[in-house]
TrEMBL record:
Residues 1-33 are annotated as: Disordered. It comes from Polyangium mundeleinium. This is JAB domain-containing protein. It comes from the Bacteria. Gene3D superfamilies: Cytidine Deaminase, domain 2.
Length: 199
């Protein structure tokens, strides 16, 4: 008797669940980050002190075109509130192969390929937490994500814990005039995240 051949099939691979962790177990708190949210949606963001310095002060961002890159680090479930995510940004890298303009940033397929190569080379288990980009701002009304930004996030960064960081660069006051905000999905919206700095 001949056995019927099984049809070829593809099944999704389940990601292991994020480990439970308390906020206090993430480490000691660093310097305050003025202007960032202390309360927010379903994701709390923790950034290492050197990441805060890179995005908030030391990186020389263009004052003429938008720039961006990618965020790497750890993902945890909040042991005290398991419906919440805790993400720890341990590294931020600039994107390569982008198209930059005064009011837009476009990541190319090569940008994402370069990011994946970076992630694979690290071999430390760091997750791709999301992305960041700059806006050149003139006033308070310019300090939010655009429709294009939201579309990019929802189509590309699909995990519920992935975040978008917006670095608002006031060209006349840079770097003292920079504001950094993080956003995560909540249903069909991107909402501000609570942010703390870790030493």
């Amino acid at each position: 008797m001949m056995r019927a051949k099984k049809a070829f099939g593809v099944s999704p691979i389940e990601e292991p669940p994020a480990p439970l962790r308390t906020k206090s177990a993430l480490g000691p708190r660093g310097r305050a980050w003025p202007g960032v949210a202390r309360e927010g949606g379903p994701v709390d963001v923790f950034v290492r002190d050197h990441v805060r310095d890179s995005l908030g002060v030391s990186w020389g961002f263009s004052r003429e075109v938008e720039e961006g890159g990618f965020l790497f680090g750890e993902v945890h479930r909040d042991a005290d509130a398991p419906s919440r995510w805790l993400v720890v940004v341990t590294e931020v890298i600039r994107a390569e192969h982008t198209e930059e303009a005064p009011d837009a940033l476009v990541f190319s397929p090569e940008s994402f390929a370069s990011m994946r190569r970076h992630a694979e080379a690290k071999r430390d288990g760091a997750s791709i937490l999301g992305w960041f980009h700059t806006h050149l701002v003139a006033g308070p009304e310019d300090r939010g994500l655009s429709v294009v930004d939201r579309d990019l996030h929802f189509s590309t960064f699909r995990r519920p814990w992935q975040v978008a960081a917006l670095v608002c660069v006031d060209p006349a006051r840079d770097p003292e005039g920079r504001e950094v905000s993080f956003f995560a999905r909540q249903g069909d919206f991107l909402v501000p995240c609570a942010v703390e700095v870790l030493a």
